User: Fold this.
Amino acid sequence: MAVDLKFIPERRTVVGKDPFQFHCHAGVGCFTNCCRKLELYLYPYDVLRLKNSLGLRSTEFMRAHARIAPGSHPFFPAVMLNMRDNVDNSCPFLGTEGCTVYKDRPSACRTYPLERAVEKQADRQGMTVYYFMTHHDYCHGHQEERTYTVSQWERDQFLYEYNLMNDAWAEVDAFFATNPWQGEGAAGPRQQLAFMVCYNLDEFRLYAARHNLLRLFRMDRDRRRRIERDDGELLRFGFDWLQFVLGDRPTLQPL
Ligand code: SF4
Ligand code: SF4
Assistant:
């Protein structure tokens, strides 16, 4: 997700502080055009939200709806949503009235027509965020009168939690790009462990209980309780734990 402004793909423009013209609603002639014939990458938090929305365990969700794809670097795969095998290759969650998982739709869907990228600053103390505007001929929302600034769009689309989790994921994926598998290669035990934490959270919950992981690290009782009850908190802990065990990073303090 790091970005080099020299390489912004065609048909995208950088969005700054000025408002942009866009409105998407059920009355537009192109309604749900963007939910067909698309390549949709799922980040770990997307999978978490979707599997909970559908009432599925993460293994069931992954088996029914997702596939492995080449990642942004050779050392960890990406995950993509399987489209329906119909003439439109429509999204499996597209219903007659629109998106059936709207409250939990993936990051890419809620960010569209924008795309978001983050770049780690040289001092590693912070990140610079970029938004790009996509320009697809099939999308007529650009001709509507309403305008938004990027922060209004983030608020309107409830992007805050998604962006927070995706930024944490960007950090972990950048760590995976350093090939921390200690010579095991792709799909070795360490990489499988990492894949479980990122995309198979229900299994990671069982693993964490079996190995008493939460008792091995210094953390206050509130955080421990939140991790025990909340999948998002467990995912955050999993990201910290992977960097600690695989990269010896000080993301957790052992007791
Ligand atoms: S998840 Fe919802 S918004 Fe996203 S492509 Fe599928 S139907 Fe469309
Ligand atoms: S194509 Fe654009 S305007 Fe039409 S439904 Fe999708 S996002 Fe909205």
User: Anything to note?
Assistant: The two ends are 34 Å apart (CA to CA). The chain has a mean pLDDT of 93. The chain is about 35% helix and 15% strand. The beta strands are 12-15, 20-21, 41-42, 66-69, 78-81, 94-95, 98-99, 114-120, 127-134, 147-148.
